[in-house]
Amino acid sequence: MNRFVVTAVSLLALPVGLALAQPGGGPQVSFKVVTVAEGLQNPWSMAWLPNGDLLVTERGGTIRTIRNGQLLPEPMANVPAVRASGQGGLFDIVLHPDYAENGWVYISFAKPNAAGSEATTTVIRAKIRDNALVDIDEVFEADAWSNSAGHYGGRIAFDGQGHVFISSGERMAPSTGDLTQHPAQTTNEDFGVIVRLNEDGSVPSDNPFVGRTGFVPEMWSYGHRNPQGLVYDGATGQLWETEHGPQGGDELNAIQAGKNYGWPVITYGANYGSGTEIGQRAAPGLEQPAAFYVPSIAPSGLMLYTGDAFPAWRGRLFAGGLSAAYGGISVISVNGTTVSGRTPILAGYRVRDIRQGPDGFIYVAVDSQSTSTKTAIVRLEPDTAPAQ
Questions:
Q1: What residues act catalytically?
Q2: What distance in Å separates the CA atoms of residue 26 and residue 179, rounded to the nearest whole number?
Q3: What SS3 class is residue 185?
Q4: Of 66, 89, 262, 326, which has the maximum CB count within 10 A?
């Protein structure tokens, strides 16, 4: 067990000469890290069933169950085939807001083509019976097929009003040439977009691009790189997203319907290796991020904390990071859509996902590629003992 006291310090570290003002830290919170389960392979997402079982997706293509603190040996059956290559595989798992009544669980993954040479981001919904997925129904297949092994997006968020948001990455299309013609800037496919669907996969009639020539009707926003965090704040109606920049320039975005978030025409990141600029910092008609990270934290899961276990953190966003040097979790304070503070915690952890448990504790999926921590599901609990 590890104990931590979080103080008000800034996560941002900027290269010399890059004067980009960003907010500092937040409240002081004391917590301890408790291991829930070990022995998973690349855990990607978590969801709780009403009976207390914790479901965990493993990127390689399996769904595991943690019951009463024990990782059950048998994975769930009937999980769709995935293209488990590079960043691809099995992704998010999210229960429908009315799961207790309808039994639907939504799962995203890299769906391979028949030859296994390409894949695209896909979402199904299914029910669980006898440790198997049944009544499987495909909700969304992104028009973003590629032989690339990365940048799938794959996050799922419900608004509680009959809609589901899904992120789809731009599949590592290079940021070269005419940047305005980059796949993330085109509007007739699902590269680098967040889509909004009815819960059955149909397109809502009030989506911003419905009926517009040259636009896919499911698109809610575009100009994204690799959206790896997605959460809807039901109290404010705000959809929040985190996405990978290239070398620097990871973003937190307050998503608005119909907006273009600029990749790669505008970015705070740079070309890998050379460090040369990509595009511009700002341009008319393109949205600025609510916050950015230089150097990169490599964004992963995004959570809005609403529990009682950590009162000082209530209402704050928790952004996971996969970077060995700058990852962990960024605790973000917001006022409307303005970021007012950021505090780093769990430095050195390669965080893939963050979820609030039914007990109000904060659960973290730790990815196995870390050299400093074990693959595990851990949770943060309030620490009443003095810090060691």
A1: 151
A2: 37
A3: helix
A4: 262
- State residue 44's pLDDT score: 97
> Distance (Å, rounded) from C-alpha 353 to C-alpha 301?
4
Output the six-digit token pair for 351. Answer: 């965080």
What does the alpha-carbon distance between residue 266 and residue 193 come to, in Å, rounded to a whole number?
16
- Residue count (the chain): 388
Residue 20 has pLDDT above 70, yes or no: no
Q: Which strand ranges, in their side-by-side order, compose the sheet holding 193-198? A: 153-158, 163-168, 193-198, 219-222
- pLDDT tens digit sequence for 339-377: 999 999 998 899 999 999 999 999 999 996 644 556 899
Q: pLDDT for 46-65, tens place per residue?
A: 999 999 999 999 999 999 99
* 68 inside domain: no
Contact call for residues 300 and 276 (beta carbons, < 8 A): no
The helix (H) or strand (E) run that includes residue 94 is strand 90-95
Show the domain range for 224.
2-57+84-94+148-382
Radius of gyration of the chain (CA): 20
Query: Structural domain tally of the chain?
Result: 1
CATH number of the domain encompassing residue 36: 2.120.10.30
Residue 270 lies in a domain: yes
Note whether residue 137 is domain-resident: no
